[in-house]
Amino acid sequence: MPVRTRAAALAALAVAAVTGLTALAAPAGAAPGPAFLSAAELPPHPSSAWTAGKVTDGVPDELRLCLDEVFPGYDSRYRPFHTDLDATARQLTIVTGSAAKATALADRMNALIRSCADRVEQDDPETEGAYRSYGRVRAEEGARVHGLHTQTSWGATDIRLLSVGRDGRTVTVVEWAQLGDFGDAPVRAFRKTTATAVNKLY
């Protein structure tokens, strides 16, 4: 066999092998993973643009304040966001084994967020916590929005908005946070962000 013909044959075999391996790694018809919010879909900040971080495996430390009890046993991914000032945000997605498991997980998360202020005070006598419910959001299988305010004995005050939503067997949590109290929370804009986050998962 001529050298050029032999080289062409070997190249064709190499391409076929790579194609076969790719097919094994990503089966035809495999569902894409859930999509994440973009920076432009967060509540507008009055003096700084949002910057989106990379989607990363795991759980952001900030969400462990209220939800640490539910994370063991689940594979999860998140995207962090930040402004040039004090505002931060993050979105977490968890894909469970079934819609029933996702429903149970979302219910558990909502319950933990409702009780988070009381648990913060029990864990740290120097911190006071307060909770507000901002109701349901219509999006796919539904979402719920919460507010959490914490203030330390030395004057540090933080406000968080958190939402839990579900689409099929996937649960997403969105958190927005900055210095301030309930009066500083962009509730209406965050409800819109929550609906967008749930609706664009798939």
Short synopsis of the structure:
Residues 1-25 form the signal peptide. The protein is of the alpha+beta class and 202 residues long. It has helices spanning 3-25, 64-67, 99-114, 116-123, 187-199; strands spanning 51-52, 56-57, 76-82, 88-95, 127-137, 143-152, 157-167, 170-179.
Alpha-beta content class: alpha+beta
User: What's the main sheet like?
Assistant: 8 strands, antiparallel
Number of helices: 5
Count of beta strands: 8
Give the rounded overall mean pLDDT. 88
Proportion in β-strands: 25-35%
Helix content: 25-40%
Topology order in helix (H) and strand (E) letters: HEEHEEHHEEEEH
Cα-based radius of gyration, to the nearest Å? 22 Å
Low-confidence stretches: 1-30
Coarse shape: globular
Q: Whole-Å distance between the termini?
A: 52 Å
Model description:
The protein is an alpha+beta fold and 202 residues long. It is built from five helices and eight strands; from the N terminus they run H-E-E-H-E-E-H-H-E-E-E-E-H. The protein has helices spanning 3-25, 64-67, 99-114, 116-123, 187-199; strands at 51-52, 56-57, 76-82, 88-95, 127-137, 143-152, 157-167, 170-179. Strands 1, 2, 3, 4, 5, 6, 7 and 8 form an eight-stranded antiparallel beta sheet that branches. The longest helix is centred in the N-terminal third of the chain and has 23 residues, at 3-25. The model is unreliable at 1-30 (pLDDT under 50). Keywords: Signal. Residues 1-25 form the signal peptide. This is PknH-like extracellular domain-containing protein.
